[in-house]
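Dear colleague,

Following up on Tuesday's group meeting, I ran the structure prediction for the two-component complex that the binding team flagged. I've pasted the input sequences exactly as they went in, so you can double-check that nothing got truncated or mislabelled along the way. The structure tokens for the whole assembly follow below. Feel free to forward this to whoever is handling the docking comparison.

Inputs:
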Amino acid sequence: MSIDLSQFHQVFFEESFEGLQVMESSLLDLDCESVDSETINSIFRAAHSIKGSSSTFGFVDVAEFTHVLETLLDQVREGSRQLVPDLVDLLLQSVDCLRGMLTSLQAHEPVNTEQSTILIGVFHDILEGREPAASASESVSEVNPPPQDKPVAAAQSAAEDEVVTWHIRFVPDVNLLRTGNEPLRMFRELAEMGELEVHADVSKVPDLGGLNSEECHLCWDLYLSTTKSKSDIEEIFEWVVDESDITIAATAGLFGSTPVPAAEDDLDAPVKDVEAAVITAPGKEKPTEKQPAAKGGAQPVAGKSSESTSIRVSIEKIDSLVNLVGELVITQSMLGQLGTEFDMNKLQKLQEGLAQLEHNTRELQESVMRIRMLPISFTFNRFPRMVRDLSKQLGKKIELKLIGEQTELDKTVMEKIGDPLVHLVRNALDHGLESPKDRRDAGKPETGTIVLNAFHQGGNIMIEIIDDGRGLNREKILAKARANGVIGDDEVLNDDQIQELIFQPGFSTAEQVSDVSGRGVGMDVVRRNILELNGSIEVKSVEGEGSTFTIRLPLTLAILDGQLIDVGGQTFIIPLVSIVESLQPDMKLINHVAGGCDVFRLRNEYIPIIKLWEIFGVVPHSMDLSESLLVVVEVGNAKVALVVDDLLGQQQVVIKSMETNYKKVDGISGATILGDGTVSLILDITDLIHMAGVHQQSKNGLKLVSSKTRAA
Amino acid sequence: MSAAEERIYDNSDMDVSGRENDQTDQYLTFIMASEEYGVDILSVQEIRGWESVTPIPNAPSHVKGVINLRGTIVPIIDLRQRFGLDKVEYGPLTVVIVLKVATKKGARVMGIVVDAVSDVYSLAVDDMKSAPDLGDHVNTQYIKGLVNVNNKMVILLDINELLGADTIPDVSINAIKEIKDSQQ
């Protein structure tokens, strides 16, 4: 009869994480002065549904924790408790804690209840009206042993709290089970509140012949010794109170530590389960007084990628797809009919039909693409919290503005852009913005501003990270670069080139390292990640006024802007993003260096020439360089010039994998289908450079050549 | 010729009564250099005319290139060159058989260029003779078996062996000849 609940786990996790997201953003929106009841309600609802479903799935730790959380929220909702900033902090910590627990559950790891136990302790303190320690993060470290170890806790707290034994008479409706309520679950919850004794009354159970397994003929007498109030108990029966007969009355501590009388018959089996739950659930781990993980910005968000493989699509998007497919089918049948009895009189109709088909196809394509698109707010949402935590930690006043949150972006791109963005925002907070004092001295408002702006431009999405801080210190960067040997002593760079230096590997000015940024991910990694997405990043900065980082990303990874080129009569595609410029070579500027590599002088740079026809073993139109064209491409700061026969045009191409049916081809990153239906191969520039034997090291070699030439 | 070997059926009388219980497989056969080869019909996806392909740089000579098969990139392999036979000019009658090949990395779709498509036979598994040992110089791994159809030998190919591997073994025309000689 049992249903395998694990099939719903994925949905549960997705819903719960969504709920946590709601809780977090609502909490951040909360204004303690004037509490919006709708916001509180939405937080409460989220907590409530996590509690409900987690106990359904038997995630006891989560359910227990959310229960306490919910109790507290309930008081806030009813207005009986004032919402203070410390409480908001505490609630935010609980969100983190829950997220950590759920993440480990999802990964089938044991749940670390350390933090939750500590937090539960704090919540209990608050609930019981004790003075919560001054600040949340401090208090967390000095809480009493938490009451999670029920038997122990019950005994311990007895001194302070009045343990009341409640007698609960629970006479459920016959249809209790049919309405999806499981008494066992309620008892389990009760058992978590304190010591519970359950006595089942089986007197009304009919004979086996007349027994309908879906009907509930049992009723129970429950004795619960707990510190909880009557309303807490009532809450557990919230769902069934209308149909059932429930009386809750306080009794004297009759049952102290009397063991439960032996079960009268087999029908008591569930009760044994309850017992077992009481004993096994708590104390999986001895609570220790370790430094709490809840301190500051240390969020227990597991580093493991919890990238879900499913995607939520709004019903409208699906409906429009269904509509379009319907249209397509109609057009197809129309064309089919036309085809069976075609004569030249119907040519006009055929053309109309084809036009309609084209129209349908394009719309269908767009809708399908849109399914993968999500608003960028999914990524932006994490920043208010981060900025809040960091501004506290750094003692800076920061205002975060999010613009264009509804800008849509491909899901895959979104997942990969998160980390680089976090890095950039952290950088802006830590290095960019000054302390309030420095800002005052500089004649700026104390509160610094960080703007995250997302918008569409052409076929790209642009994300700007703007701060009004101190800007890049060019002198410092230049000095550092010279010291590191990134640039030569006599090289003169313009402002843009200096700013570009911060994207160099291993480049960090010493004073910049702090525990906020400088965690190992350098700007070079940020840039590499963005390049991997076929995007680009640039920085503009005015000293004293702030910096702007602009990230340009393709809307989707499946489409690429390509330059079509002709090599030996074959059409290849170069990703437009890697092209610096295309030109007709001046033979005077081409040198044949001893190693056999042709080098082309482009303004101040010497660029190795790669003959595509040589690498691909095709016969070019002309072996003579002067009759060919050079396409200068750049990958990770290395420039090379590709020799091509002709430039054909630019177009967006859909990337298809070669590996699906064949294998990886050197120098080729994929294939695409051109307008005429033929296949064209897309060049992999990094691979090509490798194939041509022009490695990164040769850059230094070329540097030498360049300085020699200059000396001469 | 044993009686068993003569139990062959071509596609015109496929539903031979009384034979349903015997295990028979259907094979699509094609002609190449006047030899008849057969492949399991279940692996055949479609048969197409020859169309121009996009060559793959630095690919082995028998890999002619890739085509666009309704949005999928499909490599085309010239089986003649693959077997070391003489190259012929492709004409309007040149045929590409698109096959689904099971490899270690999952199913792949590939096209093979052959001279002409011949027939479809239902062949009993019992009638299949495994290829004789032809010594070191012939790789018989890719030959599933040999079978006689109307006194003509058909070489049944194991396309998974033949096209599934990344490195494609060389098969010379001499090997085919020797198989034929040893049969007769």
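The radius of gyration of chain A is 34 Å.

Cheers,
M.
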